[in-house]
Amino acid sequence: MKTINPLLNDIDACIAYAHKINPKKQPLTIEKLRSFPGCEHYSDEEAAVIIQSFQQLTSIAFETITYGQSSCSSESEAVYLENTDKLPQITEPNRKAA
């Protein structure tokens, strides 16, 4: 099976890739999800949850892009955390990942 590793640098590249992998704009099914490399092992229940998550994510992204643009302004308000000096510090791992 040929794996596609696209370089998605901008929205136009993302749209072109979406058209390439789904030219008929059919909804994602469990069988289609399993056709992608690394997704073959999902059970029906796992695949259904993943598909539902994708649907929710795309709805949020669509709403953010279409409705969020009109409500965004360059005069944003900064929100600061209280007691930032008490936040836990993230340490670097002792060894490199394999």
From TrEMBL:
Lineage: superkingdom: Bacteria
Name of the protein in its database record: Uncharacterized protein
Provenance organism: Niastella yeongjuensis
